[in-house]
Design brief:
A hairpin with a 6-residue loop joins strand 8 and strand 9. A six-stranded antiparallel beta sheet has the order 1-2-3-4-6-5, sandwiched between helices. Helices cover about 45% and strands about 15% of the residues. It has 23 helices and 19 strands.
């Protein structure tokens, strides 16, 4: 922890302290040949806002002195004697606190009452995002915080010697609300509407029995008040017990979870802007679960949790008001105390937003409200946001690292994925892409795609991932009843997966008329023989992939160029089907999904496997690609939004050349451009989806081509800017943006390269222009 020279107004006579220590701690300090000549060094810790805290080095011992601040104090505040008492009781039961050494009520020694404890060497993390450790350790640090808090709340106060430390009854919140109201009123300097509203709302909305037990409540339990082992995610000491009392343990839990709601400003310990997956930090619900499992509790009701959070914010706002008042009186411990009025106002405003449910706690990319969207859409959107936040992001990094480290990754599907599929299906978050099943318009589903696009794991969990979605649409639109029963039903159920085999290594496949793979009927007309080579066939590496939908040439001299292609269903285990190797994408093999190099060596399948009829391949491919391109584009915008959040977080938390990256003009403009481009691309994509809903795939072809050019390019630019602002971290395994870049850049090629779409758009526009001439 950082120390500095003793600040003005906080000085005391060091020699008087030295004499006192020699007398009171003679046995503890040990013998000395010349006590009078022993040096004593005193410095003040920068950390801490309330009670001045000092580092004291004397006779080979390193101690910490904590005292009341000088000057006139608010009644009932700064009770350092209580801190000493609770730490002594907890130290005796081996709870991680520093060893208490002495307590002195004599004001003549250092000017006020004080106590001393042993200095604990370790790590103190003041930034809640802990940028100096790996995501894996970050996760363990937070889970350790949860476990130690549960340990504290497991003690019976009466059994550890804390009789009379507080009232052991159910009136905790009544007393606390009155206490902090009184503290706020005595320090009040301005009229703050939201504080007045909280003072009125809280007393009548207390959750009654709360946790149902009375425990030691720390009062300010957070990351900055604990010391971790120098090399391990293990708490060695919990500090700052000034606000401790007996009461409802959920008050501590909610206080520690405030960081999930606080904005990243004015020094608040915010977790709001962290990357939800790659930060490693558990989401709020997981943190709560880790705590509650020690008491065999499932969760806390929504209404009760609103109270706990708003109460914690009210209390912190009252404390901030007291710090601000002391700054006006000239006896504040913090050099930044004169900024604390803004904290009081912001905390009160946030607490009321939580109470009134005017805060989108899950993040909101959906800025525009459309009156013609269904209630079902809004319900599914909220459920999807919750599912992503509570289920998907917490496992993301763990699953990715497990896959990459698994030597059998082509055979093993992470069990977490199958577990989440079951949960998603139970919540109705399943097959949302198919209007005939979900009841959603293409435009409505597009917004859900943006949400799932934030994580590459997510689409599969809702049975909404490519290439399965496009394949299911083909089977739904063009398959006969037998084909639907054999392949569509298990695909909709999620019991199998599929691939779409079109791209070939030997020809320019962006012009699908170049395709060389043949689908030829046998002489008796009972079978078709499929022969050819395909590559970058996404999904073909998955052990659950059971069928390939193959596009090839069925030559017919009587037909036009675009009526020479057919599509046929080929079981993956059929003789002659061979997966040659996995293809990599910028060095990633995307196991177990994969993008495979495949051959079809005279594969003979029943004629009944042909879809729709000979020469109908282009017709079906366009029908498949229309909605799929909407899905891809909106998922790309989800990727861009995630990268944008990472970029803004980095800019507001990292300094270079003497100021935050966010204060450099160039970065401000890059962030502005990114916001503009993402919103433009979203509106264009929504317009294309609406055109498809209203006029059909064919009539919306130009609009779909436009978004297929715009969305990937916007995503690539935004993600590239995020990488640039992040520096080396942007291309590392500790950030999602490097993988997002690969995915976005690849989609400038998938489903047709930019050039092909631009050519089509330009021709369509010129045709319209010439028609007017």
């Amino acid at each position: 922890m950082e120390t500095t020279g003793v600040r003005k107004g906080h000085e005391f006579d060091v020699q008087v302290l030295k004499t006192y220590l020699d007398e009171k701690l003679a046995d503890y300090l040990g013998t000395s040949n010349n006590v009078a000549d022993e040096p004593i060094t005193v410095k003040q810790f920068v950390h801490g806002q309330s009670n001045p805290t000092y580092s004291v080095e004397y006779r080979g011992k390193k101690l910490v002195l904590r005292k009341k601040p000088p000057g006139k104090l608010l009644k009932g505040a700064h009770m350092v004697g209580r801190e000493y008492r609770v730490m002594s009781a907890l130290y005796n039961v081996k709870f991680p606190v520093p060893r208490p050494v002495l307590h002195c009520e004599d004001d003549s020694i250092v000017g006020t009452e004080f106590y001393m404890m042993e200095f604990v060497r370790g790590r103190v993390f003041l930034d809640p995002l802990i940028p100096e450790v790996s995501p894996e350790e970050r996760r363990e640090i937070y889970l350790e915080m949860s476990r130690v808090l549960a340990q504290l709340h497991s003690y019976d106060p009466l059994k550890i010697g804390l009789e009379g430390y507080g009232k052991a009854d159910a009136s905790y919140y009544d007393r606390q609300i009155k206490t902090w109201t009184r503290q706020y009123e005595s320090a009040k300097t301005n009229e703050i509407k939201h504080m007045d509203e909280l003072i009125e709302w809280l007393p009548s909305n207390s959750p009654g029995k709360g946790a149902g037990r009375v425990t030691v409540v720390h009062g300010d339990y957070r990351l900055g008040n604990v010391i971790f082992h120098p090399t391990e995610p293990k708490i060695l000491a919990v500090l700052d017990w000034e606000l401790s009392t007996l009461g409802d343990p959920y008050a501590d839990l909610a206080y520690n979870c405030m960081g999930y709601y606080l904005p990243n400003q004015d020094g608040a310990f915010s977790l709001m802007t962290m990357d939800k997956g790659f930060s490693g930090i558990p989401r709020e619900k997981e943190f709560r679960r880790e705590y509650l499992r020690h008491f065999n509790k499932e969760d806390i009701s929504k209404e009760d949790w609103k109270f706990y959070l708003s109460f914690s914010m009210f209390r912190l706002a009252s404390i901030a008001q007291g710090v601000y008042k002391r700054s006006l009186l000239g006896n504040a411990s913090s050099p930044y105390a004169n900024t604390f009025l803004k904290r009081t106002m912001g905390l009160a405003r946030l607490a009321m937003a939580i109470i009134e449910e005017k805060l989108d706690l899950l993040g909101n990319m959906f800025r525009l409200k459309f009156p013609d969207y269904s209630e079902k859409f809004y319900e599914l959107r909220q459920k999807l946001l919750t599912f992503m936040d509570e289920e998907v992001f917490p496992i993301e990094l763990r699953v990715w690292k497990r896959i990459r480290a698994d030597p059998n990754r082509w055979q093993n599907v992470p069990p977490e994925l199958e577990e989440l599929k079951t949960k998603a299906k139970a919540q109705g978050l399943w097959n949302l892409f198919l209007p005939a099943v979900s009841g959603l318009k293409i435009e409505e589903y597009a917004h859900l795609c943006e949400i799932t696009g934030q994580s590459p794991l997510a689409p599969e969990l809702f049975n909404c991932s490519a290439p399965d979605t496009g394949n299911m649409e083909i089977l739904h639109k063009y398959g006969n009843e037998d084909q639907k029963k054999q392949w569509l039903e298990p695909l909709l159920e999620g019991s199998i997966r599929s691939c779409f085999a079109m791209t070939e290594p030997g020809v320019g496949s962006s012009d699908a008329t170049n395709i060389n793979t043949t689908i030829e009927p046998t002489a008796d007309g009972k079978h078709y023989v499929v022969t050819g080579r395909k590559w970058y066939i996404s999904g073909a590496g998955d052990p659950r992939c059971r069928v390939a939908i193959v596009m090839g040439v069925t030559k017919n001299a009587q037909k036009r160029r675009h009526e020479q292609h057919s599509i046929i269903l080929v079981p993956m285990d059929h003789p002659g089907v061979k997966v040659i190797r996995p293809m990599e994408v910028f060095g990633f093999d995307d196991a177990p999904h994969g993008h495979m190099d495949m051959s079809f060596d005279a594969v003979q399948v029943p004629a009944a496997n042909l879809l729709l009829g000979e020469g109908r391949g282009f017709e079906m491919a366009q029908g498949r690609l229309g909605p799929g391109r909407i899905h891809h584009c909106m998922r790309l915008l989800g990727m861009a939004e995630r990268a944008y959040n990472v970029m803004c977080h980095r800019a507001t938390n990292r300094k270079a050349f003497g100021k935050l990256l966010a204060d450099h003009d160039f970065n401000v403009k890059e962030i502005a451009r990114s916001r503009i481009e993402i919103d433009q691309a979203r509106l264009l994509t929504v317009a294309a989806a609406r055109a498809m809903d209203q006029y059909g795939n064919k009539m919306a072809r130009k609009e779909v081509s436009m978004i297929k050019v715009v969305a990937p390019n916007v995503a690539v630019k935004v993600i590239d800017r995020a990488i640039q602002i992040m520096g080396a971290a942007g291309v590392s395994q500790d950030s999602p943006v490097s993988y997002l870049y690969i995915a976005a850049r690849t989609l400038r090629l998938a489903d047709g390269p930019d050039e092909a779409h631009l050519n089509g758009i330009g021709r369509a526009e010129l045709m319209l222009y010439r028609a007017k001439m």
